[in-house]
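Predict the 3D structure for this chain.
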Amino acid sequence: MTHDLLVTLRPLLTAEASAEAHASGTDPGDLEQEVWLRLLERLDSAGPPVDPQGWLRRTVRSEVRRSRRTTRLERPYDTEPTDHGAPGPEQLALAAARRRTLRDAVRRLPGRCPRLLEALLSPKDLTYREIAGELGMSQGSLGPERSRCLGCLRRLLTPEVAARGGRG
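Done. Predicted structure below.
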């Protein structure tokens, strides 16, 4: 029954929303969505309307009035809101995902590489001397070992980065 009601009302709603939306400065698609939402809320609480076409016309006009009131109350910014350079939620999530990918790849490296790169990535900002002492290796072999480990890491990450980049 609900499906039949939706199919029956769709053309009427499209026509009503198109006719009313432009006069109020509302997007017809937005207006249609609001009316569908009101209908679903009504079906959930009070059941289908007795006169569906009349209910739909009244609801479209009601939503247009509500939209006009909202538009009258909204005021544009005098200037653009400032962006203090703080990253938004999307940037934070992407950065966290990159860090996880890097840490996972570092853990999969062979030999001493995971410990060496973890020490290099440490927030403690250790010196080569401190890292060499921590890993029990000479300070002179740290550079070549780091270079080999970064090469391995690069080879590990290349397929992951290439696969992720090709989707977009």
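The mean pLDDT is 86.
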